[in-house]
User: Fold this.
Amino acid sequence: MPGKVIGILGGMGPAATVDLFQRIVQLTPARSDEDHLHILVDCNPQIPSRQKAVQGAGPDPTPELLATARNLERAGADFLVVPCNSAHIFLPRVRAHLGIPILDMIAETVRVVEERVPPGRAVGLLATIAVLETGLYERPLRERGRKVVLPDKEDRQELMAVVYAVKGGDTGEAVRGRLLRVAQRLMEQGAQALITACTELPLLLRDGDLPVPVIDPTQVLAEAAVRYALEG
Assistant:
């Protein structure tokens, strides 16, 4: 199958990288090995914490993000996808130094929200502190007139604990239950759809698990990657 070469800039975390890779494979309309897309993966878990950088408690991840992006560009990737929401805070400076595009998971997800969630319905964010504090999703959603429901201070800490548990390999029912309780509180505050705006969270929560739609940026990004790779 002809198509553009996909570069996955991963490692943030490794399980989320594998999740995106698997979804791209599943979404590709292939009947044999030869029909699948060419995918390059650089799973670099040494990229500094995006959370600490936003909070001023750690180094800027931009240089390592750029180095990893350049590795994929040199290896032959035609475009990049980054399965990490908080990394998108730093991608504008990375894009400026590359000769290939990076798909925007945030913009693609907001587009899908507008397509799948009726106007006037509030959207709740299940996200890390960095994503919430920078308004990564909140700003573009509000610009489109969408009401956004945010977790309170205690639930933000609870979400971080869930994310780090998943990064540590724990996707058990106890951790999932903690996430579901935060989701329930957002729904009680008026959220009529939810975005799992950290790529660890779709490993615990999928659309159909709750009485409201769950928009999954990892799935959105996989769909966009396949679509872009097969264009032209």
The radius of gyration is 17 Å.
